[in-house]
Write a structure and sequence with these properties.
The protein is an alpha/beta fold and about 260 residues long. Helix content is about 60%, strand content about 10%.
Length: about 260
């Protein structure tokens, strides 16, 4: 009879190994529903149990694996001592694979108890230092690549105001020129006026497509956090917006674009 304290990923792995070895397993967890879910997943050789039943399970079982996310010990010396006093079988083996520890270290001094924690496991199962270093380097490489992707995304996002302002300026100029040509276009039918409107809008969109793509690519390759502001300064978009508003006052209303409203 074995007991697994916890219902997370590590506890699941431990319980699966115990079941595969032919042991009957009791899953104990502070939230009983989680224990029940894991017990059902493991099959008929596993059952769930409330945390309050832990002393009884310690007295009857032979192995306990502690694998919870608790930030302080779940199993104290008094509980283990009381369970050992009731035992009539072989020594109790306690395996603590939690970090921080789930079992008080002082339990190690109790007679009839063998406590094995992560430090003990490292000595019992030494890790290849070269392999560990290679894995660390691989993890650092993945972290650096992810950081570069995030930084690239942030730079492209920071360029969005400049791109939006550029497109606004382009469509505003189109509307202004249509207003200037309003008298020449006054004789057009509604269908012809609509065709001119759509034609000029398509021309502006195609003209702006290349610069828009170039700005995004420049932002992606830039390492400067203020590249967006520099683009605004170079294009003088803020000034152009002010001039655009002033110019509008000198022209009568005429054919207007829906995108410039």
């Amino acid at each position: 009879q074995s007991t697994v304290l916890g219902a997370g990923a590590m506890a699941r792995s431990a319980a699966q190994a115990l079941v595969a070895a032919g042991s009957r397993v009791s899953i104990v967890n502070r939230t009983l529903e989680h224990a029940e879910r894991l017990a059902i997943e493991l099959g008929h050789t596993a059952r769930s149990a409330a945390l309050e039943t832990l002393p009884e399970l310690l007295a009857c079982g032979s192995v306990l694996v502690a694998a919870t996310r608790s930030q302080r010990p779940v199993l104290d010396v008094a509980t283990v001592r009381a369970a050992v006093d009731r035992r009539v079988t072989a020594p109790l083996i306690l395996l603590d694979v939690s970090l921080p520890r789930n079992i008080e270290p002082a339990v190690r001094a109790l007679p009839g108890v063998r406590l094995i924690d992560l430090d003990d496991l490292e000595q019992l199962c030494p890790v290849d230092v070269a392999m560990r270093q290679a894995e660390i380097e691989q993890a650092e490489l993945l972290a650096a690549q992810s950081a570069q992707l995030i930084a690239r995304w942030l730079r492209v996002r920071a360029m969005s105001p400049a791109i939006v302002e550029l497109r606004k300026q382009g469509h505003a100029i189109r509307s202004l020129e249509l207003e200037r040509a309003a008298q020449q276009l006054a004789g057009l039918t509604p269908e012809q006026s609509s065709a001119v409107d759509h034609l000029t809008e398509a021309i502006v969109n195609k003209l702006l497509h290349g610069p828009t793509v170039a700005l995004r690519e420049a932002a992606a390759g830039s390492t400067s956090p203020d590249s967006s502001q520099r683009v605004l300064d170079v294009l003088r978009l803020d000034q152009a917006r002010h001039v655009r508003r002033s110019d509008r006052r000198g022209y009568p209303g005429g054919l207007r674009s829906g995108s410039a409203r």
